[in-house]
């Protein structure tokens, strides 16, 4: 697959995940090896930690926490979400305990309060998250963020997994082999709408 195809057709896959095919630890480790080459601010590169949950009993412990948080979140903002995406998100949440690997990237400390520091904090893990998702794709796997529990069940998941108090869970990535090989670019605003040169040209808000 050429680079542009990889970058434009790697989707959040929720309904085409192969729930019956296990994902070997080596595959996850290999994708994280690739993802670790992503940029990060200063010391935040080596301080991050990732946990991949593949044990079915532990996944079964995490599932109801994700489900409870997802239902609470949807009660608030489901009307703002595209209905196709909502059906797909719901499908993943319903089956989250059966997804072969649930990968949780963690950052040291708690998110800072200043916007600039927040930018460095989250900006030091999301490039690696996306690289991880791209690396999975090149190996025939698919993934989707399914991060609901960080809102109100982060501590419960931390207890289940033994994550020390000084770490923040950034999200949860559902990982499985893909039942579909080819995907298309998703609709996005035309570049001219979001890009200007030399001066701001978009609407004020
Ligand atoms: C920071 C972040 C958090 C996300 N959290 C969720 C989530 O909790 N549930 C979900 O279904 N998708 C989640 N997504 C995936 C987005 O919904 C998805 O990227 C978006 O719908 C665009 O679809 P695409 O990835 O297929 O292009 C998240 C994505 C990002 C970058």
TrEMBL record:
Any coiled-coil regions, as ranges: none
Oxidoreductase in keyword set: yes
Domain Nitroreductase: 9-177
UniProt GO molecular function: oxidoreductase activity
Keyword list, A-Z: Oxidoreductase
Keyword Phosphoprotein recorded: no
Superkingdom of origin organism: Bacteria
Family designation: Belongs to the nitroreductase family.
The name this protein goes by in its record: Nitroreductase
UniProt organism field: Amycolatopsis saalfeldensis
């Amino acid at each position: 697959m050429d680079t542009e195809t990889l970058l434009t057709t790697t989707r959040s896959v929720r309904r085409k995940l192969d729930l019956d095919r296990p994902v070997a630890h080596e595959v996850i480790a290999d994708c994280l090896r690739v993802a670790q080459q992503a940029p990060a601010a200063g010391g935040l590169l080596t301080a991050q930690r990732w946990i991949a949950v593949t044990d079915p009993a532990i996944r079964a412990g995490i599932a109801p926490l994700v489900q409870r948080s997802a239902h609470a979140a949807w009660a608030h903002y489901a009307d703002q979400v595209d209905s196709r995406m909502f059906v797909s998100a719901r499908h993943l949440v319903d089956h989250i305990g059966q997804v072969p690997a649930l990968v949780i990237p963690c950052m040291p400390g708690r998110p800072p309060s200043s916007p600039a520091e927040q930018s460095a904090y989250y900006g030091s893990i999301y490039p690696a998250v996306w690289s991880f998702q791209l690396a999975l794709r090149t190996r025939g796997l698919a993934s989707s963020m399914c991060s609901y529990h960080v809102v109100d069940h982060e501590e419960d998941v931390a207890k289940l997994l033994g994550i020390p108090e000084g770490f923040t869970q950034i999200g949860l990535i559902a990982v499985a082999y893909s039942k579909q090989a080819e995907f298309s670019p998703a609709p996005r605003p035309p570049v001219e709408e979001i890009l200007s040169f030399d001066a701001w040209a978009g609407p004020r808000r």
